[in-house]
Amino acid sequence: LATGAVGGTVAVLVSMPFDVIKTYMQTHGTGMDAVGLKASAAAFWQTGKQLVARQGPGALFVGLAPRLAHQVPGEAGIHCCIRLLDQLLNSLYNEGGNMLLRSASHMQHM
Question: Using one digit for the tens of pLDDT, what is the confidence trace for 38-57?
Answer without folding.
Answer: 999 999 999 999 999 999 99
